[in-house]
Amino acid sequence: MKAAHINPALYKRYAYPVPRYTSYPPAPHFDHHIQSEQWGELLAKNEEQQPQAQWSIYVHLPFCDTLCYFCGCNMIITHRPERVNRYLHYLHREVVLWREQLPDGHLVDQMHWGGGTPTHLSPEQLKNLSDHIHQFFVFSPQAEISCEVDPRGLSFAHLQALREAGFNRISMGVQDIDPRVQQAVNRIQPLSLTEQVIEWVRKLGFHGLNIDLMYGLPFQTAESFFQTVQQIIRLRPERIAVFHYAHLPAIKKHQSLISAADLPNTEEKIRMWLQTIDALTAAGYIFIGLDHFALPNDELSIALHQKQLYRNFQGYSTRAGTHLFGMGITGISQLPDAYAQNEKTEQAYFRSIDAGQIPTARGYVMSADDIKRRDAIMQIMCHRQIDKQAWSTRFALDFDQYFADCQEELKQLANDGLIQVNAQRIEVTDIGVLFLRQIAYVFDGYRQSSLKPVYSASL
Ligand SMILES: C[S@@+](CC[C@H](N)C(=O)[O-])C[C@H]1O[C@@H](n2cnc3c(N)ncnc32)[C@H](O)[C@@H]1O
Ligand code: SF4
Asked: How buried is residue 105: exposed, middle or buried, by Cβ count under 10 Å (0-12/13-18/19+)?
């Protein structure tokens, strides 16, 4: 099926804001204050239930050199080395606090450093932080260890330090290669620089490279973005993420540096997105879901094929990731039935660590209803189907009865050709794959909530 053949009116009708379901419930609903002791109890309960569970670690390194006007990440622009040093000092202490609270005998199977720009740190700082973590946690030999990098300001020595520290995947921001677009978003990154960094990544033997692109940026047209996509295809990264830029200057003040008049309109963005799907799939990339594409021999594509795909705060993953420990400001942690998020400001984060506590600001303990809904939502997001009978067996309930109030919407989705429903299962169609979030949203128990979080629009 060619995405370009999809009726744009249908696409537009389903382009309402919906969560990305990196968790369920989505993070804006983490409203309870989870005390350190409560985490302790939850960890102890999980230890009893899953003593062999493998762990994931997320480390948030928020610092960047310059502001990209579109940025929606939790980042801090700084040129003060003492600010970075202070943060690292506390981050090192947080690693120790976690280790003191966690049981022995578990292996770390996945670690991701995100930001901001982790490679804002010097190669030596990167190495020291990695050594420190390895001193307190044991990694499995097959662990997937990845880091986000920004080619601007990146040296061969940075990548060498990461490789020597055991990192095997690199994720790199590119966004758009058109100089006019780069100028408008304050991110000058010549293609030759991106190519140079990719050459280093390959030379150093990283197993996987991901490139981030964005559509919906100022001055982009379907034709200009097509050129960007073609250039990136030529570079053959194992994974490509194509994010939609949601312009929300009321929430991210600096986005008002982008003039709304320079942004492409909805019709143009639909063209960009649908033609990107076609270009990437024609070039051999597999559409994993949402905004992710991977080459057929990449772990993500294999996991999709084998129905072994998972979704956690880092997006799609091949690792179960139900025990995730997030370190650094805004870091998110996950246990099978609870979530927690770290303090957002450096001051609150430092204060908590000074008090000898894991710097949790808020969290969420899932209800029995949440767990059933999450199961249905993640089946759609990862496996593109819900086996209703298997769900009914898992929860000793009747799926259709439990979700009786969803039947009307499911019927509408089926009428629009996005799903097929029979007694055994709900299956996402080829067109429906473009609307996974909207299909999953049917099962979201928080959609009527008085809390009105702002999710990025899918268009
Ligand atoms: C933390 S950054 C990646 C590493 C590095 N800081 C960089 O920019 O190269 C994560 C990615 O989020 C995406 N991103 C940032 N702001 C966004 C926004 N407002 N909407 C959609 N995607 C966004 C960009 O594609 C960016 O590469
Ligand atoms: S997009 Fe990346 S480099 Fe740019 S400000 Fe955001 S986190 Fe920093």
From this structure: exposed
Q: Is the CB of 217 under 6 A from ligand 1?
A: no
Looking at all shown ligands, the one closest to residue 64's CA atom is: 2
User: pLDDT tens digits for 192-236?
Assistant: 999 999 999 999 999 899 999 999 999 999 999 999 999 999 999
Residues 2 and 55 in one domain: no
Q: Are residues 287 and 406 in the same domain?
A: no
The residue whose CA has the least distance to atom 6 of ligand 1 is 117
Determine if ligand 1 sits within 6 Å of the CB of residue 240: no
* Ligand 2 center–CA 182 separation, angstroms: 13
For residue 246, give the ligand nearest its CA: 1
> Is a pLDDT exceeding 70 seen at residue 85?
yes
| Number of compact structural domains in the chain | 2
Q: Mark whether 155 and 237 lie in a shared domain.
A: yes
Instruction: Give the contacts of 452 (CB within 8 A, at least 6 positions apart).
Output: none
Same-domain status, 17 and 39: no
The Cβ-side half-sphere exposure at 125, using a 13 Å CA radius, reads 15
Q: What is the pLDDT of residues 400-414, one digit of tens each?
A: 999 999 999 999 999
Task: Tell me the mean pLDDT in the region 28-50.
Answer: 78
Alpha helix (H) ranges present in 323-367?
A: 346-354
Ligand nearest the Cα of residue 185 is 2
User: Quick one: pLDDT at residue 396?
Assistant: 97
**Residues 162 and 250 placed together within one structural domain of the fold:** yes
Across 257-269, average pLDDT: 95
User: Rounded distance, CA 443 to CA 167, Å?
Assistant: 37
CA 11, CA 8: separation in Å to the nearest integer?
5
Give 453 Cα–ligand 1 centroid separation in angstroms: 20
CB of 73 closer than 6 A to ligand 1?
A: yes
Contact 29, 447 (CB under 8 A): no
CA of 286 to the centre of ligand 2 (A): 27
Residue 87, ligand 1, Cβ within 6 A: no
Counting residues of the chain whose pLDDT is more than 70, the rounded percentage is 96
Pocket test for ligand 2, best of 60, 63, 73, 258 (most atoms within 8 A of CB): 73
